[in-house]
Structure formats: structure tokens, C-alpha cells
Design a protein that fits this description.
three-stranded mixed beta sheet; mainly beta; 4% helix; 41% strand; seven-stranded mixed beta sheet; 135 residues
Amino acid sequence: MKSEKGTNVGKKDLKEKAHYTPPSTTTLPAPQVPESDASVLHYSGGVGYYAVHIGTSALVANATLELIVQLYRQQNNGGNTWFYEHTVTAEEASAQKAVINIHRAILNPNNYETVTLSYEVSGQTSSGVTFTLAE
């Protein structure tokens, strides 16, 4: 539940992405959430963070990394797409890994049923990973 070394992201840090359509082809691996319970993210009262790990050789210093957070209501009946822009540091580029900590308050199962996480960097897009949201 604690954030890992990386960037902490709360609701105020996200920007709405209107009319987002995921690309039909992806070239980068999906982000990972090591603390997830298989394909479930637990809200846990909205306290703490989930660390989203992005590992790819496409991370280069000063590139813009865009984390895309697609939240869906029941049966994919509407939802919201948000994004967070992060400038890749030299340390992240060298390690070929960035960690973005998403505050659990964003992932409220009373508002949304699922979340799909993906990212874009250096003109390339990752595949998405989908989680069910639960208490």
C-alpha cells in the first residue's frame, strides 16, 4: 500500500482524455502492477497507492511518458479516460523502468467496475492490462 520510489499520482494530477480510442496495434509490453491480486485491484478504503511498473527500452531521458487510465462502469457502459504525463528521468532511462504510483482513491469500485492501464512513450503504445475493482 505504500508508494514505491517513483512518481505519486492523485486525482488532481490526472487530465481527462476526451474521445480516446486505443490503437489497434501496440508495440510495447503492458504495464505491470505487482501488488495486484491476480486481475483485481482492491480499493482498501482509498488509502495508499498501487505501483504501476513500466519496463521498456523505449524509455529515453526527457521523453514524455503518458500513463493512460481508462475507468469503466458496469458492462463497459461508459466511463472516463484520464492520463498522466511524466518526463522520463536519466535514471529511469538507464534502468529502462519507471514507476508511477496511482492513489487508490481513484480506483473506487462504487464508481467504476474495471480499469485498463496502458502507456505511450517515444511514439509507441503499450498493450493494456485490465483489472476488476473491488473493496
